[in-house]
Design a protein that fits this description.
399 residues, mainly alpha, Growth Hormone, Chain: A, globular, membrane, transmembrane, transmembrane transporter activity, transmembrane helix
């Protein structure tokens, strides 16, 4: 039964790679081309986009009776309707924001559930490997979708309606596959979904807060640098997405291997260290290399930073496995992952405001200098990670 569920979830994750490709390659250009947003307006849009992430723990608690599997299916149905609405019923800013809220709610509900379900399909000692396999399937579909979009939109004009329809259908198909998986028992569901805050998980919460700040800088401002400073369009993002996915098919399983072999502290510290240099690349590339190759070298360097940042996002698997290993009992995992998503979005809603002000007042370079400082704090936090030799979940199972 576990093997069947793993295959179903693997296929669902692959379908979600198509929708994620559309999100990554098109949604920022959709905002720019359709609504002609300024930097300030774009940063303001992150409030409705990220608020559902903050609300995840509360919505999950209300819907606890569904269990991980059914709630994951519902999350993708919500995302499907939201993406469809963005494409077909966004005649004004107000309607667009309403559909964006629905779309984002579905996405954010699924984020903690995805890791929880994936780890439940793994044997003890190979959680990193299982997460890597599922992420690799997702990335392969992401790659093929980006390649297709890059080829198509090199020769025809972008049609956002058609693109968002494809993404909505992929979300819906993924929800059907997840519904075919074995649901959790009502007893475990009731215990698993509740608002849960424990002092034992404070480092996990802290890592998520820092991730929220780091993530939002790159979600909001990294693509906006390429779009508004270097005038790059949809085809560039489709190509970059293709490169990211091509490398990540192998890189994500490798990160899973590193988690199992060397541990979460090694992986998360490596991500933080690399991120410092990515931020410095964004901050100083234009200043020091603008004269080389008529500015093209700078675009290549910024694009390389964009690609590398997306790759090292795979280290997020280590936060999930870290929690799994330190959890006081197995029923804490899903609600604590949801709480982690909520706390990381506290800063996700604040950072765009601060970053937008810094960009407007001082320049985009200083936004990424702030990102480098956050990465330094993250490196310091990861040094405190300690994994018990025999995690409490294993002990509770043994009892």
């Amino acid at each position: 039964m576990r093997k069947r569920d793993f295959i179903l979830f693997l296929l669902a994750s692959a379908l979600l790679g198509i929708s994620q490709s559309i999100d990554n390659s098109f949604i920022n250009n959709f905002f720019n081309d359709t609504f002609h947003l300024s930097v300030t307006q774009r940063t303001m849009l992150e409030i409705p986009r990220e608020f559902p992430g903050f609300a995840v723990v509360f919505v999950s608690t209300i819907l606890f009776f569904l269990g991980d599997v059914r709630l994951a299916a519902l999350a993708n149905v919500l995302a499907a309707f939201g993406m469809f609405g963005l494409g077909y019923f966004s005649s004004g800013m107000g309607l667009m924001v309403a559909w964006l809220l629905l779309y984002s709610l579905g996405q954010h509900l699924f984020i903690p559930l995805s890791n929880s379900i994936a780890m439940s399909l793994a044997d003890e000692g190979n959680m990193g490997k299982r997460l890597g396999q599922i992420n690799a399937a997702n990335t392969l579909a992401f790659l093929l979708a980006n390649l297709s979009f890059a080829l198509i939109f090199k020769v025809v004009a972008v049609n956002y309606r058609v693109v968002f329809l494809v993404g909505a259908l992929a979300f819906f198909a993924a929800s059907l596959l997840i519904l075919k998986m074995t649901p959790h028992s009502p007893q475990n569901v009731h215990k698993g979904f509740k608002i849960l805050i424990r002092k034992e998980y404070r480092l996990f919460y802290g890592l998520n807060v820092l991730f929220g700040a780091r993530k939002q800088i790159f979600i909001t401002f990294a693509p906006w640098v390429l779009i508004q400073v270097f005038n790059q369009g949809v085809s560039t993002f489709a190509l970059l997405g293709f490169i990211i996915a091509g490398i990540s098919i192998f890189f994500k399983p490798f990160v899973g291997y590193l988690i199992d072999k060397y541990g979460e502290r090694f992986v998360l510290a490596g991500e933080a260290f690399c991120l410092i240099f990515v931020c410095l690349g964004y901050a100083f590339s234009q200043r020091f290399f603008i004269g080389i190759g008529h500015g093209e070298f700078t675009i290549y360097l910024i694009s390389a930073c964009f690609v590398f940042d997306q790759m090292i996002m795979a280290a997020g698997m280590a936060r999930a496995t870290y929690l799994k290993k330190i959890a006081l009992n197995s029923e804490d995992v899903s609600p604590t992952l949801s709480m982690g998503t909520t706390v990381d979005h506290v800063l996700s809603m604040i950072v765009p405001w601060i970053g937008g002000f810094i960009w407007t007042r001082f320049g985009y370079e200083y936004v990424f200098l702030g990102g480098a400082i956050i990465a330094c704090f993250n490196l310091l936090a990861t040094s405190r990670i300690q994994i018990p030799k025999h995690d409490s979940v294993s002990r509770s199972l043994a009892q």
